[in-house]
Amino acid sequence: MTKKVCLVGSGNWGSAIARIIGANTQQLPEVFERDINMWVFEEEVNGRKLTEIINTEHENVKYLPGYKLPENIIAVPDLLDAEQGLKEGAMAVSLIKGIDFDKNGVVLISNIIRDALNIDCSVLMGANVANEVAAGDFCESTLGCSDLRHGALLRDLFNAPTFSVEVALDPHGVEMCGALKNVVAIGAGFCDGLNYGGNTKAAIIRLGLIEMKKFCFKYFDGVKEDTFFESCGIADLITTCFGGRNRKCAEAFVKTGQSWEELENTMLNGQKLQGTLTSKEVSTILKAHNAEDQFPLFTAIYRIAFEGADPKTITQLQPAQQ
Amino acid sequence: MTKKVCLVGSGNWGSAIARIIGANTQQLPEVFERDINMWVFEEEVNGRKLTEIINTEHENVKYLPGYKLPENIIAVPDLLDAEQGLKEGAMAVSLIKGIDFDKNGVVLISNIIRDALNIDCSVLMGANVANEVAAGDFCESTLGCSDLRHGALLRDLFNAPTFSVEVALDPHGVEMCGALKNVVAIGAGFCDGLNYGGNTKAAIIRLGLIEMKKFCFKYFDGVKEDTFFESCGIADLITTCFGGRNRKCAEAFVKTGQSWEELENTMLNGQKLQGTLTSKEVSTILKAHNAEDQFPLFTAIYRIAFEGADPKTITQLQPAQQ
């Protein structure tokens, strides 16, 4: 039986991925239904409804202007209409790079989806800047899943000649990479703000990768070392530490002395940084477990970002207690 | 019994490391003799002998101008005078990033030293751009050795607050990382020459790291996966793919269409690129073992560099045969 695909979200990243999955369902009629419902948060653009523009012009003129969407992407303003009810055998995949937190610690977005819908949820993470994906530049991505059959089906949905998807049987590791790399990017931005050279920045990125691994191994079950060699690991970490808003705002934090809130207002139109938020929550977890000594880089980044520590302490790390 | 240190070479990198080991032998009189002989290829600079300038001004004005050498670094123009004969228990450490080749394949520089002197030889590799090390910018380095006692002693010689040395019991893996990263940097430079974005470059760096691992595992015994997480692995790879002459010349190769020889003449004053040389030799080995299919990135880089293949084929890799 063919699978019906519903895409929830239609921002920059959602629209870029719509171009790939829309083409793929057209080419695999024995596997997927052709038409894909895309839930769109309804808003007016130049006096017209965004859903109407997408369904007639086949372009998300607000969030991904300049790139056509396939005609089988159908914009739907009501979420329940879009997903048409969960059928037997339904599965989810989260493309959200971030994590949530509650009083007990890390809450994975995929777990929120799993718990709310009572279905399996995979994740797709990697070095995937949305506009570059939309432009058809070659990149790779990692599909983290706990069920190989789900992985194989979802790979068919996402893989393309310019979007090379590898399956990793490690959904938690893949998802945590997508969140923790933003903390390391804050550290990389501090280095740039201090005008440090390539040796130092490479050392911070490397130490960051080591602490990402250690954090995942310590607080999640079943995380695999190989995951950090996938696109979601080292590749996404590199892109984020050389490009990306977290790096950029952290550089400005050191150079201008402005607060994070001021920087978010002036540089990001008030949007919130993921890296500082995650840094704060990671630090809360480390404090609760009395484990700050074991994560000297994460701890130094937090103290510089939120406790007024000198940015230069980023390279004055105490050796980690094993 | 204290150990006498002899430094063979006094270029940019040799002079930078002299600053660290000169300070360390002063601070560890129970372990090392204070004075270090540094073999200097004798030449005239402004009418004076370079050794005489170093021994009076304590500065290598030709290869590391602007940085003082410790006064216990003694320039010696004759190599045999400098090393004063090999005593019982002597050990070597190679800081040369590169490999040699003969008709049977890869020849490690450390093996040439081992065979010629009949002593153990460790290696020191990492994200260590010489001028940044001389400036005292924080960085890390990896000491690859086969004997933990040698590793501990050599770590005392090289480690410093701004030069953090970790020991890896994997001399071949560490040394091969230092050579193979230059091949990947050629590929990263091709991406830059094609004006590809961050996603693509990160994917090429990641695929390069995977092929570096695979090449080491296939052709050397005892190489460890952890080595690629050390400074000599991922950190040096990152620095080399974002800075460095191999990346720069490969970018120009795509943009200008000039030959490697022309680029070496115009951009490097006639010095030879390590990356293209290593690419050629790696390709010879892969052909001899009928293993090109297993290394699609290394093979694509070689074909672009030497067989006139379109640079765009860097992202049109066939999946590796396992």
TrEMBL record, chains A, B:
Protein name: Glycerol-3-phosphate dehydrogenase [NAD(+)]
One of the record's GO cellular component terms: cytosol
Reactions this protein catalyses: sn-glycerol 3-phosphate + NAD(+) = dihydroxyacetone phosphate + NADH + H(+)
Keywords for the protein's UniProt record, in alphabetical order: NAD, Oxidoreductase
PANTHER family registered for this protein in UniProt: GLYCEROL-3-PHOSPHATE DEHYDROGENASE, GLYCEROL-3-PHOSPHATE DEHYDROGENASE [NAD(+)]-RELATED
Protein EC: 1.1.1.8
InterPro entries: 6-PGluconate_DH-like_C_sf, 6PGD_dom2, G3P_DH_NAD-dep, G3P_DH_NAD-dep_C, G3P_DH_NAD-dep_euk, G3P_DH_NAD-dep_N, NAD(P)-bd_dom_sf
Domain Glycerol-3-phosphate dehydrogenase NAD-dependent N-terminal: 4-83, 84-148
Binding site for NAD(+): G9, S10, G11, N12, W13, G14, F41, A130, R245, K272, Q274
Domain Glycerol-3-phosphate dehydrogenase NAD-dependent C-terminal intervals: 170-315
GO biological process: carbohydrate metabolic process; glycerol-3-phosphate catabolic process
Family classification: Belongs to the NAD-dependent glycerol-3-phosphate dehydrogenase family.
Active-site residues annotated for this sequence: K181 (proton acceptor)
Keyword Oxidoreductase included in the entry's annotation: yes
Lineage start: Eukaryota, Sar, Stramenopiles, Oomycota, Peronosporomycetes
One Pfam family recorded for the sequence: NAD_Gly3P_dh_C
Keyword match Iron-sulfur: no
Highest taxon above the source species: Eukaryota
Chain sites annotated for binding substrate: K97, R245, N246
Gene Ontology terms for molecular function: glycerol-3-phosphate dehydrogenase (NAD+) activity; NAD binding; protein homodimerization activity
